[in-house]
Amino acid sequence: MNIRDAASIENSGFLKDETFMITGKLSGISRAELKSLIEQNSGTIVSSVSKKLNYLVAGEKPTKRKIDSANELNIKIIDQNELFGMLKMTS
């Protein structure tokens, strides 16, 4: 999925009550665009790894400390394509 496809996903609240954090370099989409897409679908962006985090979106060269913390707390680690898949499956 590219940014044009992502932008066409409706604002339907599919990520309601889900929290996300982004780490690493993304492909084909800026961090700001991905954050906006999550928020447009009623997801919440958080700034630190904690029990309140549902998904850590990991791009290329993610921060090792964030990955380790997410693993310790059993937080699901996904890549940006899995996030786009979540949006497509629910739309």
Describe this structure in words.
The chain is of the alpha/beta class and 91 residues long. Helix 3 links the parallel strand 3 (55-58) and strand 4 (76-78). It has one domain: BRCT domain (Rossmann fold, 3-Layer(aba) Sandwich), CATH 3.40.50. It has four helices and four strands; from the N terminus they run αβαββαβα.
Key traits:
single chain, 91 residues, Rossmann fold, four-stranded parallel β-sheet, 4 strands, 38% helix
Give unreliable regions as ranges: 7-11
* CATH topology description: Rossmann fold
Give the CA-CA distance, first to last residue.
14 Å
SS element count, helices: 4
Q: How much strand content do the residues show?
A: 15-25%
- The CATH class, by name, is Alpha Beta
Shape: globular
Mean pLDDT: 87
Strand order of the largest sheet: 2-1-3-4
Counting structural domains, the number is 1
Topology:
Elements: H1 3-7, E1 19-23, H2 31-40, E2 44-45, E3 55-58, H3 64-72, E4 76-78, H4 80-90
Parallel strand pairs: 1-2, 1-3, 3-4
Quickly describe the structure.
It is built from four helices and four strands. The protein is of the alpha/beta class.
